[in-house]
Amino acid sequence: MTRESAADGLLARVWAELGRDTAELGALGSLPAAPLPARLDVSGLAVASVAAASLAAWARTAAADSIRLDGDRVAAAFQSERVARLDGVAPDVWSPLSGFRRARDGWVRTHGNYPHHAAALRRVLGLGSAEARPEVVDAAVAGRDADELAEAVTAAGGMCVVVAEEDPAADAHLREHPLVDLTRSTDAAPRPGPARGAPDRPLEGCACSTSPG
Q1: Which residues lie within the region annotated Disordered (predicted)?
Q2: What is the dihedral of CA 47, 52, 53, 56, to 10 degrees?
């Protein structure tokens, strides 16, 4: 299966699970490949994600034109931390809490780039913000079992996964379940969508307030 067909398949599956009209997929031209080198199909995921967001906007505005995606731009957006510069200097985008760490019985991958993920990890490890230096986090993780730690951090609202070999049987089982889980949060009437057509300003007609200038 090519990356292009993988993106097409992923998009079609998600669009159907969202309860959308699959005929709307016809607004998309041929999906490009995004130059994102990886062992997993990151390119297919990136292109399908951008295509779904673009298609949702297209459907809400009833645009007449079809959608054309640029694979190079998709790739740049998904690895923007590699091209972004602040005063000519590439910013350090990785938290010291993020990384591969050795647990008591294996390895885990922790994530602390977002404040709520960092807070959840610190809570589970019993660390204050001033204590969350890499070497301190390493020592705290080393005293925990990988599975137990990953479950505890996830339950606390953080991100921590066990590093393990691929399990084809587990992958096959996951493919039998929907990728999208829709939950109704309210019975209120939906808000009106943005005005159809081609407004003079980007947010004209949307259900939000803006001030001029």
Answers
A1: 183-213
A2: 160
Nearest residue to 50 (alpha-carbon basis) of 2, 7, 21: 7
- Of 185, 186, 203, which Cα lies nearest the Cα of 194? 203
DSSP state of 18: T
3-state helix, strand, coil in the chain (%, to 5): 45, 10, 50
pLDDT at 4: 46
Contact call for residues 107 and 145 (beta carbons, < 8 A): no
The pTM of this model reads 0.67
Domain boundaries, the chain: 3-82, 99-163
At residue 198, the pLDDT reads: 57
